[in-house]
Amino acid sequence: MNFLSHYYFDRNSANQNLVLGTVLPDLVKNAHKDWNFYPQKNEALFTADEQQRQLLQGWKRHLAVDAIFHSSDFFLTETAKLKQLLLPILGDSPVRPSFLAHIGLELLLDHLLVTNRTIDINAFYSHLEKVNDQVLLHFLQQCGCNDTDRFFGFFNSFKSSRYLLSYQKLENISYALQRICMRLWAHPFSETTVALLTEQLEVYKAMLEKNYLSIFEDIENHLK
Questions:
Q1: Count of C-beta atoms within a 10 Å radius of residue 132
Q2: CA distances (Å), 59 to each of 28, 83, 85, 117, in order?
Q3: How confident is the model at residue 224 (pLDDT cuts 50, 70, 90)?
Q4: pTM of structure
Q5: In the chain, beta strands by DSSP E
Q6: Where does residue 183 rank: exposed (0-12), middle (13-18), buried (19+ CB within 10 A)?
Q7: Rounded CA gap, 154 and 136, in Å?
Q8: Which of 3, 72, 177, 178 has its CA 20 to 30 A from that of 163?
Q9: Where in the chain are the domains?
Q10: Tens of pLDDT along 47-102?
Q11: Which of 30, 181, 26 shows the shortest CA–CA distance to 100?
């Protein structure tokens, strides 16, 4: 799941450290695609301080949500539907249809949460702004991060740009998918393909919107 979908499960929380923790694994990966941290395997490093424990709690919640989501019938069924819509427009594109369907589903879930006013993006960013940088710095150091300046450079840009606000428009989802694919392929799509991608996402959105909340309800039941 993507940032806003993870936030859904703690959208009513007043704890900024917990909220940050629920999206921190993805923030780390966006800051450096080769970083792999496993604080859940060294919990003793984070138990001495309450704020460190809260960040770890959010981190573990992120892992639990992703595990439930990716093993769900919903994920398998919906990515298969979207893949069939994407296949005709990919042509000579090097992008794997299954990869694009996977990421596309996750971004569309974020889009629907926003457009249907299920979550408040500004409230999400407000939580991130309240996090104490020194607390986060210590957490990252305990994780073994060897370039915290790089992380904070990305994190501060992520907060100031309010990039997730762009998810309110479907065409921005297509461009977000293009940027994600560019991390793996130098020239994933032509501009024509991007336009066709938006058209197919519009078709799929109408299908997904009928039952998209079911996966959130299912995950919540598993988390209890």
A1: 11
A2: 11, 30, 34, 25
A3: confident
A4: 0.94
A5: none
A6: exposed
A7: 14
A8: 72
A9: 3-223
A10: 889 999 999 999 999 999 999 999 999 999 999 999 999 999 998 899 999 999 99
A11: 181
Q: What does the alpha-carbon distance between residue 51 and residue 182 come to, in Å, rounded to a whole number?
A: 36
Angle (nearest 5°) at CA 28 between 22 and 29: 110
- Convert the pLDDT of each residue in 139-180 to its tens digit: 999 999 999 999 999 999 999 999 999 999 999 999 999 999
For residues 97 and 80, the answer to whether their CB atoms sit within 8 Å is no
Q: Which long-range contacts (CB under 8 A, 24 or more apart) does 165-171 make?
A: 165/121, 167/4, 167/107, 167/110, 167/111, 167/114, 167/121, 168/111, 168/114, 168/115, 170/111, 170/198, 170/201, 170/202, 170/205, 171/198
Q: Are 58 and 10 in contact (CB under 8 A)?
A: yes
Q: Which residue, among 162, 161, 140, has the nearest Cα to 151 in the 3D structure?
A: 140
* 3-class DSSP state of 12: coil
Nearest-Å Rg of the Cα atoms of the chain is 18
Cα–Cα distance for residue pair 195/202, rounded to 1 Å: 11
Determine phi and psi for 8, rounding to 5 degrees: -50, -45
